Amino acid sequence: MPNYSVHTIASAPENSKTALEQLQQAFGVVPNIAGAIANSPKLINALVGVFQQVHSSSLAEAEIQIVLLTDAVTNSCAYAVAFHTALALQQGVGAEAVDAIRARQAPADGRYAALFNLATNLIERRGHVSEEELDAFLAAGFTKEQVLEVIAIVAASTITNYAGTIANTPLDDPFRQYAWRG
């Protein structure tokens, strides 16, 4: 398996530095996964562009974290599960909802369950969700536009989930308490 450096802003390739600076502004630190992705300026810049769009969607930040955590679990990316566990809890998602998702189960909250089910089905079925599944998402109070926003979140998380798995990115200290094994 290839070994990827986990870059800082100072050590990153020149064309990755601005993206890492933007992520540092967003998180207060450069997460290790971003440092690993920075080995490819194309990928880190693509990630930051999609990241900015995802986090300016019409979904609440807690709902975005539900989708990102669901994606991390569905894609079995241990780094992203720990990272998004921390962020979901910071955004006020209850521990019971987080624990359910980490156990690959829908949360009890109806809106969170709808997000979990759509995200899981999009990944597992590669976009081939049924009309009934889409109707259930809409019945939970979401819009047709938000179906497409969930697709954008899945796209963004696919970048980090796949890259984090391939790079075997070590957990940052603040996320170690949320370590996960699928």
UniProtKB/TrEMBL annotation:
<feature type="domain" description="Carboxymuconolactone decarboxylase-like">
    <location>
        <begin position="45"/>
        <end position="117"/>
    </location>
</feature>
<dbReference type="GO" id="GO:0051920">
    <property type="term" value="F:peroxiredoxin activity"/>
</dbReference>
<protein>
    <recommendedName>
        <fullName>Carboxymuconolactone decarboxylase-like domain-containing protein</fullName>
    </recommendedName>
</protein>
<dbReference type="InterPro" id="IPR029032">
    <property type="entry name" value="AhpD-like"/>
</dbReference>
<dbReference type="Pfam" id="PF02627">
    <property type="entry name" value="CMD"/>
</dbReference>
<dbReference type="InterPro" id="IPR003779">
    <property type="entry name" value="CMD-like"/>
</dbReference>
